[in-house]
Each structure stands twice: as C-alpha cells, then as structure tokens.
Protein 1
Amino acid sequence: MRHDQAAPDCMVITAHGLNWTKAARALWLAPGAGKRAADPGSIPYQSSVTTQVVLITLSSVVEIALVDFLLSAAWARVLALAVGLLALIVILALVVALRAFPHRVEKGTLTVHYGATFEVPVPLDRVTKVTERRSLSGQKRTAEVADGVLSVPMMGVTNLAVTLDPPVEMTLPKADTATVREIRLFAIDPVSGTRTLRGGGRPETTSSERSDIPAAAAPARTGTPHNTPRWMRWLRWTGVLVLLAEIVLVTTGLLDWRIAAGILVVTEGALAVLGLIAGAAFISQYRRLRAAGETRADSFSDALFSLMPEPMAAMVRRELSVVRVLTLVLLRRTERPRPGDLPLSYGSASRKALVGTAALLLVAGVSALLSLASGVPRIVLGVVLLYAALLTATMGLAAGVRPHLLRADGLVVRWGLHHELEIPLATVRSITLEQPARGRPKDDITSDRFTVPASGREQVAVVCDEPVEVPARWGARRPAQTIVVPVDDSKAVLAYITRPAGA
C-alpha cells in the first residue's frame, strides 16, 4: 500500500469501451475460463454463463427458424440466416466475455473489467485501502463516475470498495475526464478478492495482511452439491441422452426394433461401465463432503444428486421430499431436530386451505378414473389430478413437520419441501416485526432483502452484520443482510431469540 504524499500526483487514466477483438477472443478463451478465474491474480465477478448461453442459443434458433418460415424469397432467407447467426455469435461473445475476462491484479496493476465492454487499468501503488462494502446502484451505464466514485456493478450490486490516494483523473468512453478517489466493483468471493488486492495478486499473503480480513461466513445449505468436478457434470448426462435418443428413434420408426435390441445390448454394457465410474465418483464426492464437515445424511444426498443432471436431480429431490414429509407426518416427528432445538411454527393459516384444495383434487381425480368415459386421456387426467392432490397436501403439511428451529448458535429457516437457510445468531444485529405484504414479493437480485417464500400470519425481519448467501433465480445465489421470516407468533419468536443466556 502507498503512504500519503505531500502533494498529490496528477495521473490521467483512459478507460476503454467496447472491444470487438476481446469479444472474439472470449469465445476462444471460453473453455479455459474456469482455470483463468482460479488464477491467484483473478477476481471473478460472474460465476457461470451456461444457463444464459443455453437460453440465448435456444431462443435464437427458434427466432431464425420462424423468420425463415415467414420469408419466401431465397435471397431474403439467406440474408436473414446470415444476420441471425451473426447476431447469435455477437451476443454469445459478449455474454461469455463476462466469464473470460475477470478483474485482474498483476504486474502492479489492477485491471477492472466488465466483459468486453469496459476495461480500465489502475496502478496498485495508488490503492491505499480495500474494504468489503455492499452497495446498490441504479445506474444505467456499465461504468459511471459520481462524486469521485467509479462504480462498475454486476446486476446493480457492488461489494468491494477500493480507495485511491492520491486520486486519479479518469476518462470514460463517451464522457469527460473526472477525478476518481474510489472504485466500487463486484466480486463473487469478496473475501478472496480483498486478499488478492491486498496481496498484489500473489498466491500467498503475509499474516499481517490476513489478520484484518474477516472470515468468510459459512455458506447456507440449499441442497446443491459442493465442488462437483467438471468431468462428473458431463458424465451424468451421458446415460440419459443415450436412452432418450434410442427411445426417440424407435418410437418414430427411424430405427427397427431388432437393430434397437442390438444397440440396447451395447448401450447397457456402456451404461454398466458408466455405473462403475459413477460409483467411484459417488464415493469420492461423499468422502470429500465428509472431510469438509458435512453430516452423513447431507453428504450422502449431495453426492447422490451430483451424479444426476440438475433438472433430474431437482425432480428426484422433490419426489423424495414428498415421501419424507409424509413419513414424518405419519410418525409425528419433525425434520432433523437436535437436543435443545426450539421449533418456531409458520404456515398454519394456509395449511387448511392447501389440504382442502388437495381434497377437491382427490375427488376430481377419482371421479375422472371412475367415469363412464374411456380412453387414455381420461386415465392421464385422473393420474395428474391425483398427483396434484398428493403434492398439494404435502405442501400444506410440510410446515408442520419442517418448522423453523432456534438453536443455541443459529436460526434455521425452512420453507417448501427441502429448502432451508441457517443464520448465525452471532451475526444478528437486530430483529423487528413487520406486517405481511400482500402477495409474494419479487426476488430482486439487486435487493439487500430476502423474503422467505413461505406463509405466516406475521413476519420478523432479521438484520445481520454480515451477508448471508440466499438462493436467487436459476439456481444462483446472492448475498442478503435482511432476512424476512414468516411466522405464526412473532412476539413469541422475539421473546425466544432475545431471551437471556441459559434461560
């Protein structure tokens, strides 16, 4: 870090805007983006772009096919195809660049990136302080300077503040030169980003540099596997794709059943080999999770679901959760209690409505199966109604066997069939009462609040000193410091949480 000088130096830094060369390089660097983000000098701000790439590709293919269907002239169809493919490549390049070009600390320079659309180099000898500070920004541009602060948010959020002393003069694209004394940016892991900046990009830092860095809060369990190897993520799709391809070929008549039988023998042998590999991967993942401190049940379930594609794992988890909830209801037990845990009820108001709806669906399903009409549609309708009745009843009963739990060191918040979030009591700053809002609030990724998607007659807002990782859209996670928890009796909850130690 740099000491204060008697007279501030005048340094002019030019920020660069959209760079088509970098966008083209992003597609080439995409396969190695994970290794690049893991470099000691990298500060990634985008964890994954797989979901965005898949959605953009699918929507672009549908759009290209639709335009080709509407046009009749050959030259217009070729032109539309060329424009559509070019637009797809450009959009994919800009999206992948967010992952391919993280913030970099190397050779005495901090380079702040936002994909291929923004880049600015800042000398490290100007950096005097690095702090973790979450801020929300409503700016419309990628990077803006206001009151001497350069803000480069990700989805409107920044969580690292880099102080410059002396300040620098910075010229932004299509903007005048402005004085910048602080840079705010976003990092997936702000603790690691702080360590990287303070260490100048070195893989190891001294003990004095690490002493003022707060320990990372333990991530909340959301039912997703931890550190699943890339080869395992590719492996779990192989068997499913082989079976689906064979089913489609046989049912459409493109493949004779005799040939399909021979292929089935080959595929079964291949699947058997894949099963052995999956078994070894399961054992390895289980041991890794146990070594990380997970319980036997959590390690087993996470290792098992890591072998499945994410959509299939979500479906299997839901079905197993239905069975588990119904079993707990029959046994009149609660889920995973510990000695001394205090249950906090919620969802009693909606339980009767859900169970009543389930009863109506059950009657409708039985009536559909016993009606005089015949045929496959009647059977399918009846089965769907019966399954909907089972799922609705389970959702209504889940709150009774999965209450919130108050423990000596934390508050376990639960919702749905298997979701839960643990809030350490040591980080709780305040707890206040709130009036339940009409309708379910939207999950805004830029918000500092997270409203638990459950029902309750009342709500309590738990404000934490340190952010807690909460689920967001598409399976992603985001930090939040205010957790709004629906409960049935908020006054009792406040009395329990604020009770004297040992009471």
Protein 2
Amino acid sequence: MTIEFDDNDIILYSAVYLPKDIMSAVFDITIIAWSKVIVNREININSDEPIIAGCLGRAMTKEKNSRPKLKERIRIEEEVGTRSCTNSPKPKGRIDIKIIYSYNENEYFGMECKRVSSTNPDRDLGTKYVLEGVKRFVEGTYSLGHDYAAMLGFVIDGKVNECINLICDRLNKYKNDICLKEDWVDEQSFGTTQNIYRTRHLQNGQNIMSLLHLFLIVS
C-alpha cells in the first residue's frame, strides 16, 4: 500500500497545525525507504547515527520522487539548520530530516534520529534519545511552535519492545527536563504503519507539542 495525496488535497497551510495526511504519507515513505536501505545492506549495527540517517534520507527522497503526486509537493532536506527563536541571527541546531511542504520556511515536519539499544554497554543511548533528541524539540531548538514532530529510533540490538521500555523509563526519569504532559501511548492515526507511539510535551513553556516515536530495526 502506498499513500499519496489526491489532487484536491490542500497542503499549503501552517505547520503549526500539521495535516495528518502529510504525516501519513511521510511515515509511509519512511517505512518503504527503510526496507530498501536494509535490503541493500547500506548500514549495520556499527554504523553511526549520521550515516544511518543519511542513507534513510536519501532513500526517502528517491521513494518520494517515484510518486508523481508527491514529487512536486513535498521536499526532503537533511541536516538542516533550525532556529530556537525567530529573531536568532543564526541557526541553533541541525535537525536530521526536514519535510517541507509549502513556500513558508516555517512549515515543515521535523524528524530527529537517534540510535537506541536496550543491551549493555549501549543502554545510555536511551538517555541520549531523551536529552539530545526529545529535549531539543521541547526547548524549541527544533520545530519551534509546531504541534507535531517525530523521533526515529534506530534499534541496533533488534529488541524493539525492550528499547521502548527503556525509553519510557528515561522519559519518566527526565520528565521535568522534557516537560512531559502526557505519557507514552500507541498512536493509531497513521494507517497501517506500526511501532508509532506518542508523547506530549509543553514546548518552550507555551504550546503543547505531540512527539511521534517510530522505531526501525537495524540489521
């Protein structure tokens, strides 16, 4: 199953209220692109996060461009600078993947990537996922003022459920740091895509942001 936009779809609206059909299409592209990265054996469990994210981003662009109704409607950029304040003279962070869908520079779907593992000695990756990933959205370094964004967890030990348990533990441990307002729940709004979960946070002390968490097994 592939998800594309109908001719009547309207996608040039504010990213503050990101349409779910855009996110559904992006997740669909992500899953298919990931399967091709794995089949092509471009990465392994020892690959570092920028390499994995880079291979995925490239495959996502190729998959997007294979779909006529999507090719000209969304753009995928990688390692893109983001500002935590609209008046900031320079970018504060660089997000791994940015899905741009309009002429407004602020209208995008941000995706940050992190390696995760529930197995020693890599369990500290769970803390990095929270404090160097989730927290950057909460502080507004990424996706300032947006209602949705995504974390991609690259599971390097093959144990998705155990990694989820570890991430949940770290989210609760640092709940004050990440302004956690709603605990981990299964997210059912994106068609057939599996392993998507949601947390909600108070971003920059101003608005509630939903973070979507998708886990992809590295093999």
Protein 3
Amino acid sequence: MFVSHDPIGVLHIAADGSRKLYGRQDGVTSQQFTPNGIALMPDGRLMIANSGLEGGVWQVDRSGDCRPFLMEVEGRHLYPVNFVLADKEGRLWISVSTCQVPRAKAYRHDIADGYIVLWDGKTARIVAEGFGYTNECRLSNDGAYLYVNETFARRISRLPVAADGSLGARETFAELGIGDYPDGGTFDAMGGYWLTSVVSNRIYRFEPDGRPRLMFEDADPAYVAMAEQSFKKEGLTAEILYADAGKTLNHIASIAFGGEDMRTAYLGTLKMNCFPTFRSPVPGVRPVHWNWTF
C-alpha cells in the first residue's frame, strides 16, 4: 500500500507490515511540500501532487530520489496541485484546485478557477478549467468520461474524453447539499461512483444515472452548522475546515478498493493516523497499475 505522508512524500506499507518512506528528506516543512494525491507509473516512479506552496507534480524513483516533474504549464505555475491520476496509457491527469495563493482564499462558493492538466507522455496542456476547487478526478470504467469533484462548488462534473485526451463540454453529474464538500472518489465494478465528503463525514454511492445513496455518515451536527454558516458568509477558513469532526472518523477524504475480491474499502482521512476499512456490497475495480511490472 502506498499512502501520502505529510510532509515527506509517500509511505509504503508492505504486506508484512514493514514500512519505508519515499520523498523529500531535507527538512522541508509541510507549508512548502504537502503531498496529496499520488500515482504509480508504468516504470515504477511515484508521482506526487504537491498542494503546498511550492506546488507542482513531483516524482520519486525507487532509490528514493525526489525531484520536480512538472511545475508549470502554459505559463501557469501549478499551485496547488491536488491530485494525479495515471490512466492505462500512462498519461497523467492532474487537478489544480485554484489559482489563489494561499489556497484557503478559494474555500468559497464564488471562486471557480481550478483546472485540469493532461500530460500525454511528452507534453502537458490544460484541457479544462473553471472548476470550483478541483479535487480528485477519475476516469469512468470505459474511459469515456472524466469525473471531477468540485469541493466548494459542491458538485461532481463530468466531461467526455476524446482519443487524444481532449475534453468535451462539461455537464453536472450530481450536486451535493448541506454539509457536503466532495473530496475523493472512485468507481466500483458496477459503474457506481463512490464519493467522500469532508466536514459531513459522509460516503455516497452514485448510480450511473446520478442517483445518490448515502452509504455512511458520522456527522457532528454542531460542527456542520458552524461550517455552513461560515461558508455562506465569507467562505470556510482553514481553521474551520480542518477542525475535528465526527465521533469515530475525522474528515473522510478518499476511498479505494482492494483485497482479493476487491470488496475491502480503504478510507483516507485528513486527521487520523490509521486506515479505517469496511466491506463493500459491491466490488471495486482493479487499479491500472496492478497490471504493470516494475
């Protein structure tokens, strides 16, 4: 298992429980280097989305060397990079949450300057923009659509994908309500889209037609009410967004399926030092990197 490990980079947890850190070891602070989304590449490199002030996509090889991979596209410095997704062709889909510095300025409903970058193996280009804080993005099981979680627009958008990686017109797949701020997402084998929400500590499963089903909730009503009041007035602050939430779980931020039958769901959180898991009623989809040999 590979997981983001702030502020170093990536923590590798082997099947026997042993651990190894890959990433920066030069005393860097989490303000500058905040590893968020990670992706395995066909050659074994790890790509890291840096949501810290340095921004950019960083790469780590198996020797542990960590260095910048992509810091600027079309004259824009990539800050803050939220997520990197490797597809079956080895291309990278990169979500940049906002152009605001610091990023907390974009914790509002009226700012939509996030964008998606595609690295096709040779060059990188911006393929879509105008998102309300771009978070995780995922390709549908057939590769026909790119789904984009917009945290502070509180919706899931999707865009058709052309053969060359160009994206078509955006459409709203689903909208979220009170307390819900979409963060991570993934598909299951039945085409359902699973979504995690920070603040409300909820997990949803959306049918292919966008119908939602609440699968789990550990919301703190007082905290949700405080966050909603702030969001409606002046936007969320970092202090409110990262305050403790929930009785059992604390800010569910990501979800991934694994195990021999792909029915074990692993949850990433913003503030816990463990990995909550549960058994899913439907199996997930094998990650593309399971088909690669390093």
